[in-house]
Specification:
- Strand 11 and strand 12 form a beta hairpin.
- With about 475 residues, the chain is of the alpha/beta class.
- The chain has 13 helices and 23 strands.
- The structure holds flavin-adenine dinucleotide.
- Flavin-adenine dinucleotide binds next to strand 2, helix 2, helix 3, strand 3 and helix 8.
């Protein structure tokens, strides 16, 4: 078996496997090394299995509103083990799809754990093989796509014990349905688990350290999201600092400090959703520049070590699968000598809770802080025909324009399936669309997307349906 490749990719998540496919398409002899499962966190323990769980939760929740549609069921119930099995099955299906793609593109898959050592023209890759033994690979270029794992905070006991204190891995495959949960962190991961478990009837409290939930989102969306989740029975403790997480006889106790006062929350289980820790240990040994655990990269994913690129979660935020894939394609093309412009496309962010939240570009507050003369528009789904017909009137669309140039610089949405709609605004911002462009677009009727048109019109005082 050959040990000489043009490109060796470390990690087969959405960054690594996409980079490998693109490298292979460009005629580069490519290998990929994976220590666990093809598809990485995204397909096995992240994006995909959570969406499978959320779908079960969404359907179950809808059953309690059937009366409004003139429908009824005798007695709604669920089988928790089957819901989890379905999610694990979906992950497995997607992971085996990546095995097929690797084969199709003639990419050699090496199962094992890779380490980098000094080498030329790129670092030497030493793999401790799953099957035993080791293999050393010297390639022309190496793409590090080793991703990340859940961040845990040992100092306060916020560390998975696989039983009562969970990270996302535990929360995706529990043995039994917890009756109550405390979720630490109201980012996308924390909110998605809160939404799923609440939909199945668990008592859920979300603790957030800053003064609003989903802090990266536009403030108006954060506020509406909190209201919508509270309506479904989720409790929030905002501006609350967790000081201790402890296992008790019956579950967990979570000590918090709110406004200088100490309180204790109790639940069957605690989910720690406080961000991620990059899988980049030991890389300083080859002289790689790092910043708080992330690899420092240039505009094309290149690092300070010759022949070494880094992409995805290992290379810094936003920690999103599509950002990882985008960087992977870019790095492969750069290696192949393409003069692709630097990576600077707007990256959407989505939370697939019920209701969903989706955004791209600047929030109104960030635009104002940057000195931009903002023009913002809003349109609620409650007056959108399709939303009313579908019984999905919660939420709104918000647009943020640069008043001077007319360019769309941000879009923010909360509501039913807005994660599918956001792509319209991603395209618009990427293509540098202005208010004139957006006002002139014809939107199919009836669609919830018409609210996007109206929100763009509203920013310029031209809204039609309110
Ligand atoms: C619960 C949850 C839900 C999420 N939902 C979404 C979502 O809806 N949308 C979204 O965009 N993002 C979501 N994310 C984030 C997304 O999963 C990550 O941003 C994405 O997986 C990062 O891709 P990556 O290729 O950089 O790394 P990863 O997917 O982490 O893959 C890295 C791979 O490298 C392997 N590896 C690491 N070190 C080595 C080594 N030394 N040798 C060999 N192999 C190694 C790992 O085993 C892993 O398979 C979610 C994350 C979580 C945890």
């Amino acid at each position: 078996m050959s040990t000489e490749f043009d490109v060796v990719v470390i990690g087969a998540g959405p960054g690594g496997y996409v980079a490998a496919i693109r490298a292979s398409q460009l005629g580069l002899k490519t290998a990929i090394i994976e220590r666990e499962a093809l598809g990485g966190i995204c397909l096995n323990w992240g994006c995909i299995p959570t969406k499978a769980l959320l779908k079960s939760g969404e359907i179950y929740e809808q059953l309690s509103h059937l009366g409004g549609y003139g429908l009824s069921v005798e007695k709604a119930s669920f089988d928790f083990a089957k819901i989890i099995d379905r999610s694990r099955g979906v992950a497995k299906t997607m992971s085996s799809g990546i095995a097929f793609l690797m084969k199709k593109h003639k990419i050699e898959v090496v199962e094992g754990e890779a380490k980098l050592e000094k080498g030329s023209p790129s670092p030497k890759v030493v793999v401790a093989l799953k099957a035993g033994g080791s293999r050393t690979i010297q390639a022309k270029s190496v793409i590090l796509a080793s991703g990340a794992r859940a961040r845990e905070i040992a100092a306060i006991g916020a560390v998975s014990d696989g039983d009562k204190i969970w990270t996302y891995r535990d929360a995706l495959a529990p043995k039994t349905m917890p009756k109550s949960l405390v979720v630490i962190g109201s980012g996308a991961i924390g909110i998605e688990f809160a939404s799923f478990y609440r939909a199945l009837g668990a008592e859920v409290t979300v603790v957030e350290a800053v003064d609003r939930i989903m802090p990266v989102e536009d403030a108006e969306v954060s506020k509406a999201a909190q209201k919508a989740f509270e309506k479904r029975g989720i409790t929030f403790r905002i501006g609350a600092k967790v000081t201790k997480v402890e296992k008790t006889k019956d579950g967990v106790s979570v000590a918090i400090e709110v406004g200088g006062k100490a309180e204790t929350l109790t639940a069957a289980v605690c989910i720690v959703a406080v961000g991620i820790a990059p899988n980049t240990e030991g890389l300083d040994a080859i002289g790689l520049n790092m910043d708080r655990g992330h690899v420092v990269t240039g505009k094309h994913g290149e690092t300070n070590v010759p022949g070494l690129y880094a992409i995805g979660d290992a290379a810094g935020p936003p920690w999103l699968a599509h950002k990882a894939s985008h960087e992977g394609i870019h790095a492969a093309e750069h290696i192949a000598g393409y003069k692709t412009p630097a990576v600077n496309s707007p990256i959407p962010g989505c939370t697939y809770a019920n209701p969903q939240v989706a955004s791209v570009g600047m929030t109104e507050a960030a635009a104002k802080a940057a000195g931009i003369d903002v023009k913002a528009g809003r349109f609620p789904f409650r007056v959108n025909g399709k939303a009313v017909a579908a019984g999905e009137i919660e939420g709104f669309v918000k647009t943020v324009f640069d008043g001077k140039t007319g360019a769309l610089i941000g879009a923010h949405m909360i509501g039913h399936e807005v994660t599918e709609m956001i792509q319209g605004f991603v395209t618009a911002i990427t293509l540098e669309a202005t208010e004139e462009d957006l006002h002139g677009i014809v939107y199919a009727h009836p669609t919830m997307s018409e609210a996007m048109h109206e929100a763009a019109l509203d920013a310029y005082g031209r809204v039609l349906h309110i």
